[in-house]
Amino acid sequence: MLTKGPLTSRTILIASSGPLELTTELERYGARVLTWPKLDVCAPDSFAAIDEAIENLFGYDWLIFQNVNAVNFFLGRFQTLGHEISELDVLRVCAVGQETVRTLEESQVHIDVLPDRFLTQPIVEAIGAYVGGRETLRGLNILIPCAARSELQESLEDAGARADSVVTYRTCATNDPQRISALLAGGGIDCIAFTDALEVHVLAELFDTNELGRLLDGVAVACIDHDTVQGAAALGLSASLVPHNRAELAQAIAFHFRLMS
User: Do 6 and 16 meet the contact criterion of CB atoms below 8 Å apart?
Assistant: First the structure.
């Protein structure tokens, strides 16, 4: 008779790029291991919306870049249409994340506001603080290059600004992410394991959200080290499982669920 492992009947979600040995260890403890799809970033189906926004750019007060993909695709289209980077000097620019900041700086785009977190409310608060208080957001016109309608747009509009989420690129999964979405929505995922901070951001981009805490509500979060913990926290996730060393991630997950059984 087979002895049940501590992760029997548990479903663990990991990145498709995660180490094979982690999958092996989790399965040895009895887990069902699923991977989220690999992410590719593509041009939008149509450039009409972003082209219109660029041609009417001087109707905006602010430009917000939430990730490096938004920067690359926006600036690429901006220059394709014959515009110079210096034309952006008349706008205020908000950049979220170190990679976003670095890419903008390399492109010689000035930056006015750098929120310390990726979450929606800290971004709104950072811009509000810059312009003199949240109430002064009222009436500002803000452009957000993105892959889909942004949660940030809704929060800015709640504060009285006019914000446009304009599709500038799209995320393309190598296979259908809807199965994972359905499992998350139905409580079918028990734990998600991140083996580096980049995986956290890839998952956020896959689901077009900076609010992973909402997406993974009720899911145990395991992070391989404290750098990954910080990356998760920036997107609203609190890690409940952090091993003593990188080799013990599967063991930490198994121990957590053994205590719960």
Answer: no
In tens, the pLDDT along 215-249 reads 899 999 999 998 899 889 988 899 989 998 878 99
* Second CATH level (architecture) for the domain 42-171: 3-Layer(aba) Sandwich (3.40)
Q: Which distant-in-sequence residues (6+ apart) come within 8 Å of 35 by Cβ?
A: 13, 14, 15, 16, 18
Q: For the chain, what percentages of helix, strand and coil (3-state, to nearest 5) are there?
A: 45, 20, 35
| pTM exceeds cut of 0.70 | yes
Options 1.25.40.390, 3.40.50.10090, 3.40.630.30, 3.40.1400.10; CATH of 11-38+175-260: 3.40.50.10090
Rounded CA gap, 152 and 156, in Å? Answer: 6
Residues of the chain with CATH 3.40.50.10090: 11-38+175-260, 42-171
pLDDT digits (tens, 9 = 90+) for 118-160: 888 899 999 999 999 888 899 999 999 998 777 889 999 999 9
Cα pseudo-dihedral 104, 152, 209, 253, rounded to 10: 100
